[in-house]
Structures are given as C-alpha cells and as structure tokens.
Amino acid sequence: KKITVVAGPTVSWLAPPANECAAKTEQLAVIGDAVKKVEQVAFTLDGKRIGVDKSGPLGIFSFTWKTGKTAKGSHILVATLTDASGATAASARKIKVCK
C-alpha cells in the first residue's frame, strides 16, 4: 500500500454512516489531527453551524445532533477542523432525515 503524507490538518468521519437515515438523536463523530494544537471542530448542516467541540479527547471530536427540526430528505454535514495556526481541514458527509 502507498502511504500519503499530509502537510496540514486532517479530519475524517467516524459516525454517522453516510447516506443512512439519521436517528432522532444522532452522535456526530470525527477523528482529527494537526501538527499544531487542534483548537476546535465545527459541525455544520447544510451550511448552518449546529455545534462545536473544542476538547477532542484522543483526537475524537463529537457533537450530539437532535434531528427533530430538520426537514425530511438529504442533507450535508460538514466537520471543519481549525488548528492553532488557523489552518483548516473539512470533511463532508451526506445524511438522510427519514422521519
């Protein structure tokens, strides 16, 4: 296998699974890292901020999303990591609200 070296921060989704129906309460979780200290991971839904995690124990950043007021259909979740130097990395995940 080929190893890819990344010079900046990285963020990757752990949960929820892509393209699945979201639960009424969904745990959003990503793993993130950077050369500089990670300041925060912001979670957005269709471009609107829904939560932030500034602690990230063991590099896992999470937020509990309550889907009750979210319209039925497909949506885009984005996790954006920001490190101490202001560098960012983002990862998107498509999710469905099926109610």
Write the element-wise H/E pattern from the N-terminal end onward: EEEEEEE
Number of helices: 0
Q: Biggest sheet, in brief?
A: 4 strands, antiparallel
Radius of gyration: 14 Å
* Strand segment tally: 7
How confident overall, as mean pLDDT?
93
Structure classification:
mainly beta
The end-to-end span amounts to: 42 Å
Biggest sheet strand order reads: 4-3-6-7
Low-pLDDT parts are: none
Helix content: under 10%
Strand content: over 45%
Question: Would you kindly provide a written description of the structure presented here, covering whatever features stand out?
Answer:
There is one protein chain. By secondary structure, the protein is mostly beta strands. It is built from no helices and seven strands. It has strands spanning 10-15, 25-33, 38-45, 48-53, 60-66, 73-83, 88-97. A hairpin with a 4-residue loop joins strand 6 (73-83) and strand 7 (88-97). The radius of gyration is 14 Å and the shape is globular. The N and C termini lie far apart (42 Å). The relative contact order is 0.31.
